[in-house]
From TrEMBL:
It comes from the Bacteria. PANTHER family: RADICAL SAM SUPERFAMILY PROTEIN. Gene3D superfamilies: Aldolase class I (3.20.20.70). The keyword Metal-binding applies. This is Radical SAM protein. Keywords: Iron, Iron-sulfur, Metal-binding, S-adenosyl-L-methionine. One of its GO terms (molecular function) is catalytic activity. Transmembrane segments: none annotated. InterPro entries: Aldolase_TIM, rSAM, rSAM_sf.
Length: 452
């Protein structure tokens, strides 16, 4: 970490610690005074956009202000641990270490590691990528523990479980929370295995946050996930809310469900249920059995983009639209630039949707994986497009993925039905061509508005 960043981080860390401590006493009264505290310690020009957003929320008492107040209704221990792990450890200390190592080693170093504890699942959803790997693979507790230890040395304090259904390994997930109290753990889950006992464990360990998958209202959700799953998810959300535990929703938009999941009624349902965040994913035609007809049309994607942005200005829930929000993170975040994915067989993949790799974590270190040919192709190629509404080397720029996989010699990690990169990229070609015009109109209009 260079000297300026060290000083900058230390100053911000001190200011933030005092501010958070102060806010705990009486958030509603003290939120307006919190900014003064930060301003006294942190010089003008440092973290200006974050401070401006915070100031705006306070002055306007807008939806973000409501969301900040909601965090003070959460369990105190869980909230304080989240602030420490997510802001202090992950965003401040961790990012600085990542940056230093990335420069020294000339490779990407991730902010978060996604990993599949198991490919097993208690449901059998249509089109789930977990199915691609079969249902017999697991990363052992010691392997996951070792990945986290290596990750922390690289400055990575954020771990996100995918699958399979990670909660099939509930006990191990709690053990990992205990072993690494300085990390924040988030888990994608179908929600059906969250019960009273697990909520109590979450309160005890304090560093575990579920992101429950929903495909829309009851009909759409149960159509894909199975009858009765929506009711089980509702019960899980009720339990989490009753225990003042933070949770979010993850949802995948397709040409079939986009109207429902970007509707005001859907947002309101999630907010009423107590969700703090909602993450939107674009349907990806990955796998030999994928259905390209589920890809949204340009008009549909534009509508999704506009609706999510509109509700972001008005609804007290933190929403991320991964395929349309690349501008906030400078493009594609895969290949270790912000994250990577390790599947249940140990294959280290650049992204949860990119099932190609040169390396397996059972045979190499995390740092070696980050320097492997496909990861270096990501490192050297990012951003894949200057238009941040076309960030992906697969979906919107399929010729990039085709080239990177072929040149790096990466192989399919799909153990059930290996898909050639040509098969995958051919499916994306037409989509990419169709989306380009709309993406350019939206992106350049957006830029024009920002400048004026
Ligand atoms: S590879 Fe595509 S889907 Fe994965 S992070 Fe990059 S842009 Fe997103």
């Amino acid at each position: 970490m260079n000297i300026i960043n060290t000083v900058k981080n230390a100053a911000f860390n001190t200011a933030l610690t005092s501010t958070l401590h102060y806010l705990e006493k009486d958030p509603e009264i003290n939120i307006p005074k919190a900014m003064d505290l930060i301003d006294k310690v942190v010089p003008d020009g440092w973290y200006e956009s974050q401070r401006a957003a915070f100031r705006k929320a306070i002055t306007e008492k807008n939806n973000w202000y409501q969301l900040i107040l909601k965090t003070y209704q959460l369990d105190e221990g869980v909230r304080k641990t989240f602030f420490r792990n997510f802001i202090m450890n992950s965003a401040l200390k961790g990012s600085a270490i990542q940056e230093e190592i990335a420069q020294r080693e000339n490779c990407n170093v991730p902010w978060a590691i996604l990993l599949d504890p198991t490919s097993a699942c208690n449901l059998h959803c249509t089109g789930c990528w977990a199915a691609e790997y079969g249902h017999k693979l697991s990363l052992s507790l010691d392997t996951i523990d070792n990945i986290i230890q290596q990750g922390k040395e690289l400055g990575t304090y954020m771990y996100i479980y995918t699958g399979g259904e990670p909660m099939v390994r509930k006990k191990d997930l709690i053990t990992l929370c205990e072993r690494h109290p300085d990390c924040e753990f988030l888990s994608f889950t179908n929600g059906t295995l969250i019960d009273e006992e697990f909520c109590k464990e979450m309160i005890r360990v304090k560093n575990f946050v579920p992101a429950i998958s929903l495909e829309g209202f009851e009909g759409a959700n149960d159509g894909r996930r199975g009858k009765g799953v929506f009711t089980k998810v509702q019960n899980a959300m009720k339990l989490l809310k009753k225990h003042n535990l933070p949770f979010g929703i993850s949802t995948c938009y397709t040409s079939a469900n986009y109207q429902d999941i970007t509707s005001e009624a859907f947002f309101d349902m999630l907010i009423d249920a107590g969700a703090m965040f909602v993450w939107f994913f674009h349907y990806m035609p990955v796998g030999n059995d994928a259905v390209p007809a589920l890809l949204p049309t340009p008009e549909q994607r534009k509508l999704i983009y506009e609706r999510i942005r509109r509700f972001r200005e008005t609804k007290p829930i933190f929403s991320m639209d991964f395929q349309n929000d690349a501008e906030y993170v400078g493009g594609c975040i895969a290949g270790g630039r912000r994250y990577l994915h390790i599947n249940a067989a140990g294959d280290v993949e650049p992204c949860v949707f990119i099932h190609y790799s040169n390396v397996n974590i059972h045979e190499c270190s995390l740092l070696d994986a980050l320097k492997s040919p496909l990861f270096m192709a990501y490192h050297n190629g990012q951003p894949f497009n200057q238009n941040m509404l076309r960030p992906c080397p697969m979906l919107e720029n399929p010729e990039y993925l085709r080239k990177m996989v072929k040149q790096s010699g990466a192989e399919s990690t799909d153990l059930q039905s290996p898909e050639s990169v040509d098969h995958l990229c051919d499916k994306c070609k037409l989509y990419a061509e169709n989306w380009e015009k709309t993406a350019n109109e939206l992106w350049y209009e957006n830029e024009r508005q920002t400048k004026s």
